[in-house]
Amino acid sequence: ILNVEQSPQSLHVQEGDSTNFTCSFPSSNFYALHWYRWETAKSPEALFVMTLNGDEKKKGRISATLNTKEGYSYLYIKGSQPEDSATYLCALSNSNSGYALNFGKGTSLLVTP
Amino acid sequence: DTEVTQTPKHLVMGMTNKKSLKCEQHMGHRAMYWYKQKAKKPPELMFVYSYEKLSINESVPSRFSPECPNSSLLNLHLHALQPEDSALYLCASSHRQGAGGYTFGSGTRLTVV
Questions:
Q1: Which of B21, B20, B23 is CA-nearest to residue B33?
Q2: In sequence order, which ranges of chain B are alpha helices (DSSP H)?
Q3: pLDDT of A89 strictly over 90
Q4: Interface contact B66, partner A, CB < 8 A
Q5: How many helices (H) and strands (E) does chain B have?
Q6: Which letter does DSSP use for residue A60 in this model?
Q7: Counting Cβ atoms within 10 Å, is residue A65 exposed (0-12), middle (13-18) or buried (19+)?
Q8: From the list A32, A41, A103, which residue is nearest B43 (CB)?
Q9: Most buried in the list A5, A34, A56, B24, measured by CB within 10 Å?
């Protein structure tokens, strides 16, 4: 089992605020880093799959960066909206895990109007 | 069809019962996964099937028995479970093991009484 750490554990922001979360992971044998958005009673929704050091991806107001050498990824949300409220999970795959995903505990985001 | 369908959505079973969880996808994905998720913890990998063959078994107790009868179906047979096995069981699929994003089902909420 790979040690994937996410911080903060939870976050409460006002509508319109920008926010970011951190995912840290062991950098050895890195293969891919995934970000998911998970709303209660729904399926986890894939946001990004990142494989290259220095990669930066964007989807609407959400973006993510990746540093495989130091083992961290940031997820940014610009101008948070109440519908962004969810748990954001990061997951690592590498050769040690047979390329299966190992998840962090997630960051629970609440955006209030 | 871009979904992973899990049935049932909820299941209550006694410790002497035998039941099965089902997972189905028609996206042509050749890797399928079972994860177990308990409250306030990250999803934990249980099993990986790659091209209908068991690829990874994360030391899961034998009271959980996976089966992949064809490339679209993944079952999890349950027998003699314990109350501590109560959890959300998530199924996921991907094009190949470790390749690309995973598509998750919405899970089966299992309660063992």
A1: B23
A2: none
A3: yes
A4: no
A5: 0, 11
A6: T
A7: middle
A8: A103
A9: A34
For residue B48, list its beta bridge partners.
B33, B56
Listed in sequence order, the residues at least 6 apart from B60 whose beta carbon sits closer than 8 Å to its beta carbon are B46, B47
Mean per-residue pLDDT pooled into runs of 10, chain B (113 residues): 92 96 96 92 92 92 96 97 96 86 93 97
pLDDT confidence tier of residue A68, bands split at 50, 70 and 90: very high
Task: Report the C-alpha gap between A53 and A49 in whole angstroms.
Answer: 12
- B32, B51 contact by CB (below 8 A): no
Task: Please check the confidence at residue A52 and state whether its pLDDT lies above 90.
Answer: yes
What pLDDT was estimated at residue A86?
96
Whether A1 has a pLDDT exceeding 70, the answer reads no
Those residues whose C-beta lies under 8 Å from the C-beta of residue A14, and which sit 6 or more positions away, are A80, A111, A112, A113
> What is the pLDDT at residue B7?
97
Contact B45 A49 (CB under 8 A): no
Which among B29, B45, B93 is the top mutation candidate for probing chain A, defined by the most A β-carbons within 10 Å of its own β-carbon? B45
Give CA B94 to chain center in angstroms.
14
